[in-house]
Amino acid sequence: MKTWSTTPVPRLPIEQGGEAVRVHDTASGELRELTGREGTARLYVCGITPYDATHVGHAATYVTFDLLQRAWLDAGLAVEYVQNVTDVDEPLLERAERDGVAWQDLAQREIELFFTDMEALRVLAPDHYVGAVEGIPDDVQAVQRMLAAGLAYEVPVPEGQATVADARQVDVYLDLSTQPTFGTVSGWSREEMSAVFAERGGDPERAGKRDPLDPLLWRAGREGEPHWDGGTLGRGRPGWHIECSTIAQRHLGTPFDVQGGGTDLIFPHHEMSAVQATALSGEPFARAYVHQAMVGLDGEKMSKSKGNLVLVSQLRHAGVDPMAIRLVLLAQHYRTGWEWTDGLLREAQDRLDLWQRAADMAAHESVTELGESTVARMRACLADDLDSPGALAAVDTWATNVAAGEPASDLVARAVDTLLGVQL
Ligand code: 5CA
Ligand code: ZN
Q1: Shared domain check, 214 and 75
Q2: Where residue 366 sits, what CATH number does that domain have?
Q3: How many domains does the chain have?
Q4: Is 189 found in the same domain as 119?
Q5: Which of 152, 184, 298, 317 has its CA 20 to 30 A from that of 255?
Q6: Which pLDDT score is estimated for 18?
Q7: Is the pLDDT of residue 135 over 70?
C-alpha cells in the first residue's frame, strides 16, 4: 500500500558521543539497550483501524515511535519501519453499517486523513505500510500450518449463523496450551487477562473453545460480512492478531527490535501476535515491547468507541500550528498517562514562539559552546528511554539564554528538527 510522504531527516554536523538508545521493555520490565543488527534497527508499530479520524492519543503513539527512529538514526543506525493498517475488522464493519457507507470507502477516507495528519505532524513514514487485507494470503498459509502442526483447532460455527458459499462450517483458534511463551509479553495473571479480553475484541464465551482466552485465527465467512479465499480453510477472514504476526514476519523477519503501540494493546493484541508468530517460527517475536501510555480527555481514555476525542484534523482546521500539537505530545513522557487540555496547547504555543524567536537570532552554520552542550543534553535525554520532556527543557534553557543575549547557534534549531521533528 502507498504510505504518506516524509521530509528527510538531516544529519547533525557533530558526531554523537556513542550512547546507545535504551527503552523500557514491557516484557522484562527493564530498560533495553537497542543497537539493531548489522547496522539496522527494525521497528513494527501497530497502525490504525481506519473507522474514525486520528485523535491526539493515536498521534502520541506515532510521535513516540518517530522519536525512537530519530534517536536511532542519530546514533548512526539505519531503520527499517513497518506499520500495518487494520483495514478490515469488527469496529470498521460496524461503523460502516451504522453510517450506511461501504466499509472500503470508510477505510479509504480515514486512511487518507491519517496520512495528512501524519505529514502535518512530521511523523516519519514507514518503509512498508501494509493493509490487513493485503496480508490475507500470508494469514491463510500461517493458519494452515498451525492446524497441520496440531497447534490450532476447529470450532463449529454456531447454529443459526448462515455462512457464505465455499465457507467451511468451522472457525479456527490457536490452542494456547501448546505455547509455553504465552503470557511473557504482558506478564499478566490469568485474572488480569480475563478481565479485559472480551472488551478488547476477544470472545471468551464462545462455546467449544478449549481455553476461553484462545485467540481466533480464521472466521468462516458469514452472510453479510466480507470474506476471502481461504484455500483449505474455506472462505472467510482472519482474526485480528494474526495480521500483525504475519506482516512483521514477512517485512521485518523475527526477532526484530521493537514491537510498538499503546498500552491498550499489551493484552491481548501484542501477547497474541507474539505467541502466534512464535508458534510459526519457533523464534521470539520482538526483542522489546514498547508502549505509549494512554492519553485521556475529561477523566477517560480517549477512544473512538467512546467518542471523547480531540482530533488532529480538527485542531489543524482551527488553525493550530501542527508543530504546537507535536510539542504538546513531546512535553509528556511516553510512559506517563496524561489528559489533553487547552492549557497544554497554550503552553506548547508559547514554547514554540520562544524557540522560534531564538532560532531567528541564530547565525547560519554556527556552533557555540551553549549550542553543543544543549545538543549533547538533548541526545542524552532521548537515549535514556525517550525522555522528551528532558530534551524540551534543554532547548528551553538554550532559548531563554539566547533571548537574554547569549550568542545563538543554529545547531540547536537543526537538532530540534533532526531529533524532535519540530521545524522552527
Ligand atoms: N489497528 C489496531 C492495532 S493492529 C489498533 O489498535 N488501532 S487503533 O486505531 O485503535 O489504535 C491505533 C494506535 O493508537 C494503537 O497503537 C493504539 O494503541 C494507539 N492508541 C489508541 N488510543 C490511544 C490513546 N488514547 N492514547 C495513546 N495511544 C492510543
Ligand atoms: Zn497490531
Answers
A1: yes
A2: 1.20.120.640
A3: 2
A4: yes
A5: 152
A6: 66
A7: yes
Beta strands in 149-308 (DSSP E): 152-156, 170-174, 216-220, 236-238, 256-262, 286-292, 295-297, 300-301
Which residues surround the ion ligand 2 when the cut-off is CB under 5 Å?
Answer: 46, 244
Cα of 46 from ligand 1 centre, angstroms: 7
pLDDT digits (tens, 9 = 90+) for 69-91: 999 999 999 999 999 999 999 99
- Do the domain assignments include residue 14? no
Predicted local confidence at residue 248, as pLDDT: 98
- Whether 315 is in a domain gets the answer no
Instruction: Look at residues 292, 325, 359 and tell me which one is the last residue of a structural domain.
Output: 292
* Co-location of 141 and 63 in the same domain: yes
Q: What's the gap in Å between 136 CA and the centre of ligand 2?
A: 14
Rounded to the nearest whole angstrom, what is the distance from the C-alpha of residue 83 to the centroid of ligand 2? 8
- 208 & 281 share domain: yes
Report d(CA 306, CA 309) in Å as an integer. Answer: 8
Gap between the Cα atoms of 216 and 236, Å rounded:
12
Of the candidates 173, 189, 179, 196, the residue with the CA atom closest to the CA atom of residue 263: 196
The x, y and z cell numbers of residue 212, run together, are 476461553
Average per-residue pLDDT for the chain: 96
**Domain assignment of residue 388, given as a range:** 341-420
Mean pLDDT for 256-277 is 98
Q: Give per-residue pLDDT as tens, 326-342.
A: 999 999 999 999 999 99
Domain match, 129 and 251 both: yes
Q: Is the pLDDT of residue 304 over 90?
A: no
Q: Which ligand is nearest to the CA of 201?
A: 1
Neighbouring C-beta atoms of residue 21, cutoff 10 Å: 27
Query: 44 has which bridge partners?
Result: 82, 259
User: At residue 158, does pLDDT exceed 80?
Assistant: yes
Does residue 416 lie in a domain region? yes
84 lines ligand 1 (CB under 6 A): yes
Q: Shortest CA distance to 261 belongs to which of 123, 62, 122, 25?
A: 62
Residues 198 and 267 in one domain: yes
Q: Is 85 in the pocket of ligand 1 (CB under 6 A)?
A: no
Same domain, yes or no, for 268 and 170? yes
Which cell goes with 417? 528538527
